Amino acid sequence: MKSYKITILAGDGIGPEIMKEAIKVLKLVEQRNDVKFELQEAAFGGSAYFDTGHPFPEETKMICDESDAILKGPIGLNHEDSEKIPVDLRPERGALLPLRKRLNTYANFRPVSLPRRLAHFSPLKPEIIGDGIDMVMIRELVGGLYFGEKEVGVNDDGLRYVKETLEYNEAQIEQIVRVAFKQCMRRKKVLHNIHKSNVLKSSVLWNEVVGEVAVDFPEVEIHHILVDAAATALCLNPTQFDVMVMENMFGDILSDQAGGILGSLGLMPSACIGETNAYYEPSHGSAPDIAGQNIANPYSMIGSVAMMLELSFDMLDESKNVWNAMQSVFADGFSTPDLSKPGADVKMIKTDEFGDRVIAALSGSA
Ligand code: IPM
Ligand code: MG
Questions:
Q1: Is 94 exposed, middle or buried (0-12, 13-18, 19+ CB in 10 A)?
Q2: Which residue's alpha carbon is nearest to atom 5 within ligand 1?
Q3: How far apart are CA 99 and CA 80, in angstroms?
Q4: Which of 13, 33, 166, 285 sits at 20 to 30 Å (Cα–Cα) from 253?
Q5: Residue 120 and residue 132: Cα distance in Å, rounded?
Q6: By alpha-carbon position, which residue is closest to atom 6 of ligand 1?
Q7: What is the mean pLDDT of residues 62-84?
Q8: Does the annotation mark 196 as catalytic?
Q9: What is the distance in A from the centroid of ligand 1 to the CA of 150?
Q10: Are the CB atoms for 308 and 71 separated by under 8 Å?
């Protein structure tokens, strides 16, 4: 029997409650397959800082290093709690970015998917959604502005200033671009390369490397599109996109917009993949304002499990079953509060009820 060690980082805010639902799904998948999931929880994020003095404690680093995959909930605190922590130890800078760097998970897959039967959740008109939205954003995750050198000080004129650097070398660009081309070969063989080469030199190099890697993938049709134009196109004509590739900061911004066109960031799971490590997390934040109320949408957390089953454990069928189960709950007319519009004809369900319904649907698909 195959056995996998999965580290559970429940995180902050709504993290623990959506993680609970994700674990239910993992347990069911374990029960009905010839596989053992060894789950180990570890402290991470703002809650870890308040409990242990560090948002990414040494013990957690060791546990992560030894695991086959990591399932991570959202992290982050409300403004007031955040202010209680030194700037560099706040959960994003003190835990999340170091996790990404440590594991070198350079390829972030953010599927943006809204099948026709869920099109009612989107703020876009039905004629724009057509047969549904189905694309994947591939975001470089361990370089660029997020990790460049930073300088803060007072200049010769007595003015406070800040300098942040956006740096990529050709090897970093090549590895993420290759991931994107390979993804294209498994999908529609159409790549949208997102850049800003009319202003940024980093994009000029990026585009050069795209051109060089393209030689190895002659079947892939490439469209180069400026990041600002891509933002507009995502609203006006999202179905033209299949695989999009972009640097770290562009990916952060456009993937949130993608959540918007689906109707909620709650529909955005993600996979962060490196050469030897992988971790899975929702693309959204920890929503401290609704934490503990059992109203958060666990779709992105359970979707991250589906991605883990496929990409870390090669359990493609069960991965598909999980996606289908989640979508069938919504297609049956249920909704979590994040997705409901005033006056909509939906049956509102809570976080745990969504999880239970996914389990029920999944049980019927064994
Ligand atoms: C994301 C998040 C993070 C990011 C934050 C929490 C640092 O917004 O995963 O998109 O900016 O990468
Ligand atoms: Mg983001």
A1: buried
A2: 92
A3: 24
A4: 13
A5: 10
A6: 92
A7: 98
A8: yes
A9: 18
A10: yes
CA 261 to centroid of ligand 1, rounded, Å: 18
Query: Which of the residues 65, 228, 317, 332 is marked catalytic?
Result: 228
Q: Which two tokens stand for residue 343?
A: 């006056």
50 phi, psi to nearest 5 deg: -70, -30
pLDDT digits (tens, 9 = 90+) for 189-210: 999 999 999 999 999 999 999 9
For residue 95, what are the contacts with CB-CB under 8 A and spacing of at least 6? Answer: 44, 45, 48, 55, 56, 75
Phi-psi region of 215 (alpha: psi -120 to 50; beta: other; left: phi over 0): alpha
* Inter-residue contact 205 to 193 (CB < 8 Å): no
Crossing angle of helices 299-311/15-31, nearest 10°? Answer: 40
Q: What is the pLDDT of residue 366?
A: 61
Q: Across the chain, what does the average pLDDT equal?
A: 97
275: tokens are 């050469």
From residue 215, alpha-carbon distances to 172, 178, 211, 212, 220 in Å are 18, 11, 7, 6, 10
Q: Which tokens sit at 162?
A: 């800040």
pLDDT number for residue 342: 75
Q: Of 252, 281, 284, 300, which is best to mutate to test ligand 1, by the most ligand atoms within 8 angstroms of its C-beta?
A: 252
**CA dihedral angle for residue 39, residue 44, residue 45, residue 49, rounded to 10 degrees:** 140
pLDDT at 344: 80
How far apart CA 72 and CA 137 sit, in angstroms, is 19
